[in-house]
Amino acid sequence: MDPIPTIKDVTHGDASQQDEDHEHVDEPGIIDNRVEANHDVISPQTSIERGEQTSLQEAVNQQPRRSTRERKSSIRYPSSDYVLISDEGEPENYYDVLNHKDKDDWIKAMHDEMNSLKKNNTFDLVELPKGRKILKNKWVFKLKQGDGNIVKHKARLVVKGFGQKKGIDFDEIFSPVVKMSSIRVVLGLAATLNFEIEQLDVKTAFLHGDLKEEIYMEQPEGFEEKGQEHIVCKLRKSLYGLKQAPRQWYKRFDSFMVSQNFTKTNGDHCVYVRHFSEGNFIILLLYFDDMLIVGQDVDNIHKLKEDLSKSFDMKDLGHAKHILGMKITRNRECGKLWLSQEKYIERVLERFNMHNAKPVSTPLASHFKLCRKDCPHTEQEKEEMSSIPYSSAIGSLMYAMVSTRPDIAHVVSVVSRYLSNMGKSHWVAVKSIFRYLRGTSKLCLCFGDSKQTLEGFSDADMAGDLDGRKSTSAYLFTFAGGAVSWQSKLQKCVALSTTEAEYIAASEAAKEMLWLKRFVSDLGLR
User: CB of 477 within 8 A of CB of 486?
Assistant: First the structure.
């Protein structure tokens, strides 16, 4: 039989050394194990005589250490970027509404939303079948503002669609939207032919889509049926937040337009055209719940508006003045139309604290030679650059570029290559673009040329990319006197000569020209 282990065998040291060890141990779990081991081999009386029980108990009861590291406030976003409910802004949930100073206005907005859901027969209250799961929902609140003043309190019931499972709760989710190029072509056509341009907005657009899947949702917070809190909502139509909601809305709208004898263009499935016997035609462009109607005959336009209002809950905005953040200015006497984003650019400059910057004449001066060598390599350098809102700035610039500013297409393409690991020189280049916009925020696209022809230009550099030595392709197309399509991007392969680079650029431009030609042909122009 093995000998009984001694105290020295268990603790790997004598009693005095054990006391010293216990004074330096911070993990209570380890100390507890040692106490139990000591009780197995020695009696409590012996432990008391050696003075170990007191020291062990003190170690067990010792409070865990607290971090002494100095707490620092966020350096990535200033404190002004955070809005608390105590500022009486937009409530974050239903309980914030109950304590809000505008409680009555928000509750009225919630009742309006529920009335809209009931009017549309969005769901039925049923018992939850066995084996089925329910989706949660939440209220989203938004203040609608116009000219700096609050014009409406808006409440929206949103399903938490991240709980859906593919193949059970949804299948296809893709939904097309009208291309920016299509909008510019149609507006240029309207300016040249002096057509009417009307705008419509669909209220609760996603609620009009029919569901083929069997989906259950909990009752909306604050509107539970008394005595029937256990029952759930079986969705008959789509709701905001469902993954398939945009697609179902598009399918419903598409079927309506086909029933009205409209034809969907092959080049853009969100552009609908209808030709009348007298030679007139109407064009409708759809971007989710925003619509533009362009036509010559006012009576035909009003008839279409009435038909739309019978099937959907519409809001007539009259003559188009803004569309997707772009301002539409028109002078029908001289046949001109302008597209601008001055207010959007001003907001972007103010957001990034560049509204008082010194303007420059070019977005990216020739001394900027951006490459991967300027990217941070050490963890300390990456930590310093992590506080820079580089991605947000690029996204803001990109929306201006794809909408009305072809003059910054190349520079935005260049600075976008370093989104994953940007350096200080890259951020300086972005601020240079902001300085250029500071001095050119009033620039706009102008349409109204009497010639309804497409004109295109293409160009390429040679090995302009310092990292991979790839060339850059670029093209620009005009219609009715204004730019309607443009692009600047790296070529997919390394060109071995300037001739090859130019041929690749011309090939990309030819593909865009073929698309534009087919789209204009679908509109009825030859």
Answer: yes
- List Cβ neighbours of 83 (8 Å cut-off, separation of 6 or more): 89, 90
- pLDDT classification of 272: cutoffs 50, 70, 90: very high
Cβ burial 420-448 (10 Å sphere, 16+ → b, else e): eebbeebbebbebbbbbbbebbeebbbbb
The H-or-E segment that residue 154 falls in is strand 149-159
Of the listed ranges 2-16, 63-77, 174-188, 195-209, the one predicted with least confidence: 2-16
| Whether 233 contacts 222, CB under 8 Å | no
Q: How many helices (H) and strands (E) does the chain have?
A: 16, 18
Report the DSSP beta bridge partners of residue 457. 476
Q: Which three-class secondary structure state does DSSP give residue 241? A: coil
Q: Cβ(249)–Cβ(208) under 8 Å?
A: yes
Is the separation of the CB atoms in 325 and 403 below 8 Å? yes
Residues 346-372, mean pLDDT to the nearest whole number: 91
Considering the entire predicted model, what is its pTM? 0.76
Q: Are the C-beta atoms of residues 199 and 257 closer than 8 Å to each other?
A: no
Higher-pLDDT residue of 39 and 347 is: 347
Surface-to-core class of residue 197, CB atoms within 10 Å of its CB (0-12 exposed, 13-18 middle, 19+ buried): buried
DSSP, res 380 = H
* β-pair type (444-447, 454-460): unpaired
